[in-house]
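Q: What structure does this chain adopt?
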Amino acid sequence: MDPFNSASAEAAERALLTCLRSLRWAHRLADHRPYPDLDALLAAADEAAYDLTPSDLAEALAGESLPTLPEDAYGAAHMALNAAHAAYEARFGHAFVIYLGDTPEGEALDHALAGIRSRLTNDPEEERVVAAEELRRLARGRLVRLLRGAGNSATNHDEPALGR
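A:
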């Protein structure tokens, strides 16, 4: 937690934006530092995510993309997911988001396809609530990875460094 707590506000916000692309969410978490531990940060992140306005949610969803399929996924799976995603975007106007962090790697594709197909039946307000919850879960998982990565000497080139 020390690198995150001691980072400049700008560096902390940049790092937080890799977890959830909402400026309000990132500002709020950066402004309330220091956090005593990861659990306190995750609780604050959840609270801030629950407080997202519809425009904050739209901003966060605009920064998302389709979950990455495993490299060995067959071509038909890519086509099926792309077709379902196109239908989802046409219906709801934003990218499909789903948290797959607790899903075994071999089941991720099936879970994503089942999720997108079942959520296509939601009405727009119901889907907004589901998408907000999935974004909250994604942000939690990304925060954990970000902070665990900040504490070791290995560099993750996809996420900004903290404490600089």
